[in-house]
Amino acid sequence: MSIHDLLTIGSGLAAVIVMILLVRHGTRLTGHLARRGKAQTMLAVRASLAIDGRRRLSLVECDGHRLLLLSGGANDVMLGWLPAEAPPPPRNPSS
């Protein structure tokens, strides 16, 4: 191999590395911009508990309401909606 071939290979490798880094930086930048204007998540898994090797109990929040889901068995079951959390009782100041 001549020095010309080695320089061509080296510059090609450097160009590919620079392109990878630019794409990586660009996706981070666009990801941050996209998240800025996003509304709050309406559906979220708040907690999950493994019952056994196949079944899982999940607490899911949907638009401010919470429900329990049992999944992984022969079929998935919605166990029901949970009541809204009551606000904490007011504290009486000690006199």
Output the keywords.
95 residues; alpha+beta; four-stranded antiparallel beta sheet; 1 helix; 36% helix; cell projection; transmembrane helix; Flagellar_biosynth_FliO; cell membrane; Flagellar biosynthetic protein FliO
Describe the largest sheet. Answer: 4 strands, antiparallel
β-sheet strand percentage? 25-35%
- The level of helicity is 25-40%
Morphology: elongated
| SSE string, helices as H and strands as E | HEEEE
- Average per-residue pLDDT, rounded, comes to 83
Quick overview of this protein structure:
This protein is α+β, with helices and mostly antiparallel strands and 95 residues long. The protein has a 4-stranded antiparallel β-sheet with strand order 1-2-3-4, with no helix packed on it. It has a domain at 43-81.
